[in-house]
Structure formats: structure tokens, C-alpha cells
Specification:
This protein has 208 residues and is an alpha+beta fold. Helix content is 26%, strand content 20%. It starts with a helix and ends with a strand.
């Protein structure tokens, strides 16, 4: 009986000792907690300031004007001409000369007055000396009268169209022709002249 009591006491001690030991983790392996990742916002790239806008005033570009070659009776052909700067009567007349090959040298600058312009062609111009040799095929003339009418009508029409404001009447801008010394325009080879006190019209020529 005494031995049975001692055996019971030992069994109870072993049982109590087993209850105080911590239970091993499932599977017998320790579980490691993964370290957390720290997210950072992307670094913003520094933007360079835009260069200041160019404050300089742009230079004046090319402009376009129309040259008219032909006669009032037969009609005109239009030719665009580019230029820079100020538009002047001399610039238009030189443009006609460059285009056609005609010598249109002026004896004096074109004068502008109330209601019109006055043009004085030099004695060296094609109006008095004839067409160039060789002539350009597109502007070929067959006699002095045809050349004179084309020169005078082309200059007149080009100046009227070039210096009439939008919506205005080009025919209202009168063109006068005269010779050096303020003499009436005269073409001895044709026996024609135009009174100096009347605006030019080819049909207004008088015989001499």
C-alpha cells in the first residue's frame, strides 16, 4: 500500500511537469515573420524653367504684288512679283522691265499728286529705241506701235492696281506721261503725241 502511494505521487509529478512545458510549433519548425517593405514615393525630377520668349520684332517678310502686261484693248495677263520693304512706282516699273526684257529707264522719279501719278520715261527706254534683241517669246512684238501701246498700257494698269486701296476704283487713279523738260509725250516714228494736260489713254493720242 505504501509503494502504491509513492508510485501515484511520482506519476502526478511527471504529469504536472509535462503541462508546464511550452508546446512546440506545428511541424517542428519555427516560423519567421517576413520583414515589412517600406514604399517610398518616386522622386520628382526637377524641371528646368523654359527659356524666355524672343522679344525681338520679326523682320518684315516678302510680299506679293501683281504686274499687268498687255493692252487695254486686248486684255492683260497677270504676273505675281515678290518684293521686300516699301512698294514704290519705280519698283513696279522695274519689275515690268525685268519680266519682259524691255528697257524702261526713267528720266525722273515718278511724281504722285492729287488723283494721279506722272511718269517720265528716258529717251534710252524701249519706248523710243525699240524692243530688245533677242526678244522674249512670251512678250514678242511685231512693230513699234504694238510695243508702245503695251509699254504705256502695262505701266498704267500696274500702277493703278498697285496703288488703289481695296474696294476702290483703279481707273480713278490717273496716269500722265511726259518727256524730259516737261514736254508732252511724243512718238515721232508713229506720228503720235499725248497732250500733257490730259491723263493718258492710248485712244487719246493725237496725230502730228
Amino acid at each position: 500500500m505504501k509503494k502504491l502511494a509513492i508510485l501515484f505521487a511520482l506519476t502526478l509529478c511527471v504529469a504536472l511537469a509535462g503541462c508546464n512545458q511550452p508546446a512546440p510549433p506545428q511541424g517542428g519548425e519555427s516560423t519567421q515573420i517576413p520583414s515589412g517593405t517600406v514604399s517610398t514615393s518616386p522622386t520628382e525630377e526637377a524641371t528646368e524653367p523654359a527659356p524666355p520668349a524672343d522679344q525681338s520684332t520679326p523682320t518684315e517678310g516678302e510680299q506679293t504684288v501683281t504686274l499687268y502686261i498687255g493692252t487695254k484693248a486686248g486684255g492683260f495677263t497677270e504676273y505675281p512679283m515678290t518684293y521686300e520693304g516699301e512698294l514704290t512706282p519705280e519698283l513696279l516699273i522695274q519689275g515690268i522691265a525685268d519680266l519682259t526684257g524691255w528697257n524702261l529707264t526713267l528720266a525722273e522719279p515718278v511724281t504722285s499728286g492729287k488723283g494721279g501719278m506722272s511718269v517720265c520715261l528716258s529717251n534710252e527706254s524701249a519706248l523710243f529705241t525699240g524692243p530688245p534683241d533677242p526678244q522674249k517669246d512670251e512678250f514678242h512684238v511685231y512693230d513699234a506701235e504694238q510695243l508702245a501701246e503695251m509699254i504705256l498700257d502695262s505701266i498704267q494698269k500696274t500702277l493703278q492696281e498697285g496703288f488703289t486701296l481695296e474696294g476702290g476704283d483703279p481707273d480713278a487713279l490717273d496716269i500722265w506721261y511726259y518727256m524730259e523738260g516737261e514736254q508732252p509725250l511724243e512718238l515721232p516714228a508713229l506720228g503720235l503725241f499725248w497732250p500733257i494736260d490730259q491723263p493718258y489713254q492710248w485712244e487719246g493720242a493725237e496725230s502730228k
